[in-house]
Amino acid sequence: MAHVQARRRKPITIPGSVQKENRNPLRAPPTSKKTVSINGIFDHVKGPRKAHEVRSVLSPRPAGIPKAKATPGYFTGKGANLLKGKVAQPGFFAKYRANGDKTPSGLPFSDPVADYHKTANANFERRMEQWRKELGLRRDGLDVNGKPMRKAPVPTEADIDAVAKELEELQKPIEDDVLHIQDPQTGNATKTRKLGETLEMLDRRLEKKFSQIQQLEIEQKRLDDEVEILKKQVLGDDKDYKKAKDGYEAQLTLLQKEVEKVEAQAKSELEEMKRKDRNAKKAFNLKIQALWEGINDYE
Questions:
Q1: Which of 5, 126, 190, 229 has its Cα between 20 and 30 A from that of 167?
Q2: Where is coiled-coil annotated (predicted)?
Q3: Whole-prediction pTM value?
């Protein structure tokens, strides 16, 4: 009888299933290594930014914000006694400048800071002076170059004084206004008169002219009446005038016909005379021609 050796099969692994491992109780469990960053040593000094940290500590004006307390850590004792007051006050770097005069190590830091303060204050004062000057010019309606602005006009003191003077002139009586008149009768000489006096003179001249016009109208009416009376005396009544007019027109028509008749007769007689003259000239020319022919034959 043959001996058949059975083969051991590998365990079947189902995807997603967890296989239990046979651990030896005598062996220590495996350990995993942690990755540590060197920046972790500063984690204890890190924290949220404070409001006073946002402002520049080099500001020339006091901020009025108390200094925040330092968090215990690596840099705790480094700046503990630098300043025991408010941050960003004008004397913030006074201690550094004082120390810089005594210790050589303070010179590289205090001198630039002092120069910065000096330059910053000078720039600030210069800008403030420029703004004050520009504001004064704008009050007078001028731009930074001293020229009038093209925007809405801003009256100056001179403009206000000019308007006040014009108002004062306008409040005066109109009769006191002075007129300069050229008189053509005196060679265009200029005379100075007040408006009130000129108006009074004009009124007097108008009254005089109106009086003359009224007198002329009365005289014209009188002459018209006289002409009407003379017309009636010469022509008579309207009927007689019409009758005389008709007779005159009839006689004028007859006379016109007679004139036309005489003109036609004269024209006819003139034509007859011209015809006779032409015939006489023709007969005379024939006689002269016959005479010349006889003379030629005799020779």
A1: 190
A2: 199-283
A3: 0.26
